[in-house]
Amino acid sequence: MAVITVDKLCKRYTGGAAPAVSDVSFTVADREFMVLLGPSGCGKSTVLRMIAGLEPITSGTVSIDGRIMNQVPAKLRDIAMVFQSYALYPHMTVYENLAFGLRRRSVAQAEVARRVHAAAGKLGLAEFLKRKPHALSGGQRQRVALGRAIVRDPKVFLFDEPLSNLDAALRVTTRNELIKQQREIGTTSIYVTHDQVEAMTMGHCICIMNQGQVVQMGRPLEVYRNPADTFVAKFLGNPPMNLLQGRLEAQDGRAVVRFAGSAVALPKRTASSLDRNVGGDVIIGIRPEDLYETPPAGGAAEITRLPARVIAVEPLGAETLLLVALDASKDELIARIGRETTLKTGDRLDIALDTAAVHLFDPGTTKAIV
Amino acid sequence: MATQARFGFEQLRRVPLVLFVLLYTLVTGGPFLWVAAMSLRTTAEIFKAPYGLPAPAHWEKFVDAWTKSNYGTYFWNSTFVVVIAVALVTVIGAMAAHCLARYNFRGGRLVRFLILSGLVLPPQLLILALFQILLDINLYNTLTGLVLVYVATHIAMTVYILEGFFAQIPQDLFDAARMDGYSDFEIFWRVTMPIGAPAVFTAVTLNFIILWNEFLFAVVLLTDDEKRTLPLGIMHFTGSHQLDVGMAATGLMIAILPIIVIYAFFSETMIKGMTAGAVR
Question: Are B172 and A90 in contact (CB < 8 Å)?
């Protein structure tokens, strides 16, 4: 049972012009798995290290179960951390690596052995207990690092990009393994990554950071469907959301965006709800999966067609990515279409847009217009 | 044909290198073998034929040197001074190197500069001051005094060797140990020292060899015969009034034995430690 509360956390390094982390606040509920997602250098690892007690806090508080931890040394916080580099002690065997933290906590020898063997069994490491880390593969090392956290049975798990040193195939299996373990054990966890696939698949909740600040928090699909600003819109989703310049107008009480020579009525929006932005410039966001070569049959979607020319076709097997340039504005869009397409570079098409899925952002603040 | 020609050319290119290595081995190994031969011959035999072979070999000279010429005492004095000095300089130097490599603290660069500046100071510069200080604290002409001087003068090199290596140990390991509940002092002993073992062995071996052969400080700071270390003892045979070349050679072989043993055991780790530190 552990609830982590981070309140107005700031970190400023001496000599640093801008704070590395500013005003970060969030709460991770008991047994919840939260993912801190953001590009390199956005301050997410710094937040994690402040929670761990490895980095002094400039201002703000970190509390676990209501107890403020700012002055509590790392070793007394009852937190286990898995590092990107795994940080296995090279001079110790797997067994000793797993037992190292328990021995410091004066756990009885028999209990150490029992817990180490239990964790090793659970992670498929039983046959490697006598090996040194250099004699293990990347995936095995990663499991030892995870095991070292598990044996301690801590209040909180912290993960600092633990999968980024693994190759793609291993990353997927280890990711599933990690999710399974966390769900079984149910320890409150914070997981730092710059990989949006990990964030989408692993977390109960995503917290997206940029330039030291929290940009958006929420359930993964909720954040994906309703990005708070253009940064989140571009960061979450692969390929990222298409962003175009346009103009918002009112027509017969309906909101209409004009871009690329077309006027697109927004079915879900009324002009009145967008009052403040009517008559002004907007940024239009379109997810690649909301563009179609041929619109889905029998769908209730309102479709607008935009004349365009194919610039590139990228068949990925299960699907095909299409890069098209709109005739009217020369804006380039990426569309995720069916694998059965016969389009070639240079072909013309009227690409279909599901108007219900159009996102609007304020060009000044880059925030979503809702 | 072409490959054969190239093979011949490659071999030809190696000739100067092989010649150089042979010459170098002759220059360094030759005198050693010569002294080794002399250590088994009497002075009279040596004067008759300086480059002769040890036939018959006088193995009893080693026993004589040990029992009659006070070599036993010199040997134990050297062992006492060098073992304690090397142990102290290794522990103190490793702690200093760990701090400099691991912690950012105000004045850290100045501390590093001051410690490492000890590398460039010639020992002759320190002799007068050390002599006076040891007199003042009643440690002149004592082995303890010599131990302290050895520790002080070899901290710089030890820190230099160890810091480079320690700085390469990933920070994550230290963070992991902190998360595992260990204090800074425990981390030094349980993480830095075992992982830095190759560099520590390098420092131990180098310090041991240098201090075992150290002459200048010993000759100035020790006066009693029963306190002399081995290098002073050997000099005893080649004093101004006598020249017992045969016995001096035997003494040299006794003196060099521990070095050979240490080097034989640790040379590989030592080279590993030196090259690892070099690519910082």
Answer: no
CA distance A9 to chain B (A): 21
Could you give the ipTM of this predicted complex?
0.82
DSSP A290-330: GEESSPPTT----EEEEEEEEEEEEE-SSSEEEEEEETTT-
Provide the number of structural domains found in chain B. 2
List, for residues A291-335, the tens digit of each pLDDT value.
Answer: 998 887 766 667 888 899 999 999 998 899 999 999 888 889 999
Same domain, B229 and B103: yes
Please indicate whether, in this complex, the C-beta atoms of A101 and B178 are within 8 angstroms of each other: no
How far B180 CA lies from chain A's nearest CA (Å)?
4
pLDDT digits (tens, 9 = 90+) for A62-78: 999 999 999 999 989 99
> How many domains is chain A partitioned into structurally?
2
Neighbouring-strand partners of residue B203: none
User: CB of A97 within 8 A of CB of A89?
Assistant: yes
**Is residue B78 one of the residues assigned to a domain?**
yes
Q: Which residues touch B64 (CB under 8 Å, ≥6 apart)?
A: B247, B250
Residue with tokens 């940064």: A231
Domain residues for the domain of A56 are 4-235
Is B44 inside any structural domain? no
How much is the pTM? 0.80
